[in-house]
Amino acid sequence: MTRMMTGGALALPLLLCAAPALADENSTDDIIALGHRADAHGPSGTMEDHIHKRGDLMIGLSWMHEDYRGTNRNGSETISDADIAAAGFTSRTKAMTMDMAMLHIMWAPSNRVTLMVVPSWMRMEMTMVGIAPSSGTGHHALAVGETSTEAVSGIGDTRLGALVALSRGSKLSAHAGLVLSIPTGSISRQDEDGNFVHYGMQPGSGTWDLQPSLTLRGAQPGFGWGMQASYLLRTGSHNASGFKFGNRFAATGWLSKPLSPRASLSARLAYSDEGIVTGHYNSGHSHASPPGRQANYGGHRLEAGIGANFVVGGSFRLGAEATVPLWQKVNGIQAPKRFGVNLNVSRMF
């Protein structure tokens, strides 16, 4: 399965080269001609979901919030504190939140190509709870039942890419994307003891990553639909801090219902499969809890989302979406995801 996903991801750039043969610059049945509809853009939790017409400039802001908490899981099953302690840990994740703010700048030099740059800002907060006696000292030495909260924030990685139209019919539109993730975020944040924070608390990846994607869209007078598949390929063997996050395959599909030209509702399903962290921190860090070890990252998740899109004043767009996991199978021991929220606002110029 992994080889199939990797092969498909690497083959996708070939579709970009074929775009001129597939796209019709003079199409009269054009999906972007329906851009006045509220559901001309995908649900708020999707990215690279739409293209623009020649000369369009879009500037937008989006915010994503994810909440992880509750009884920890080992795979798809819950795991007790006693079993986590038996695995060699003295504390576990009680709760974690992740917030990401992104500035989206999209410009279309032609009807076939839309260029984009997306800088980001991250904030992660994690609360640990002691589950077993520890002989250690310092910030990570928690008594049983004692909690400790740590937060990290800063500039995240920057996405730079292009979306290329393959077909632009209103009943079936297709575009391919290729995004380069530039490692502008820090991977060397430390805690109060001078140790590296947990891998997932670093604002950046530290690697130059490629993400090809393929998006299909369609619209009828009474509804719209879309589906997208993408693959995030982490390059290199490790970053400057000694580790590398796992590759990530994602697929999503949605239906939208226009309530009026200015408002629509959406329902979405999303699946993701992310690999473990590889490599190892090359300086001091804690192994006292599951997030301190590389095997306890990534996994499989199926989520459902309900959202709404609005057009305000003709040039402003607003979007909101809430997501909840329907099924999740984590790698190793992790706190499960509880919910997610996605908000965005954009303006056309």
Summarize the SSE layout with pairings.
Elements (H helix, E strand, L loop, with lengths): L1 H21 L34 E13 L3 E2 L2 E2 L2 H6 L4 E17 L5 E6 L1 E11 L16 E9 L2 E11 L4 E10 L26 E12 L2 E12 L8 E2 L3 E13 L2 E12 L3 E2 L19 E14 L3 E15 L2 E2 L2 E12 L1
Antiparallel strand pairs: 1-4, 1-19, 2-3, 2-18, 4-5, 4-6, 5-8, 6-7, 8-9, 9-10, 10-11, 11-13, 12-15, 13-14, 14-16, 16-17, 17-19
Structural class: mainly beta
Mean pLDDT: 89
CATH class: Mainly Beta
What is the CATH topology? Porin
Shape: elongated
How many separate helices? 2
- H/E order of the elements? HEEEHEEEEEEEEEEEEEEEE
Strand order of the largest sheet: 1-4-5-8-9-10-11-13-14-16-17-19
Largest beta sheet, briefly?
12 strands, antiparallel, barrel
How much helicity do the residues have? under 10%
Distance between the termini: 43 Å
Binned strand content: over 45%
Q: What is the CATH architecture descriptor? A: Beta Barrel
Overall structural domain count:
1
Question: Any idea what the CATH superfamily is called?
Answer: monomeric porin ompg
Radius of gyration: 21 Å
Poorly predicted runs: 1-29
Q: Count the E strands.
A: 19
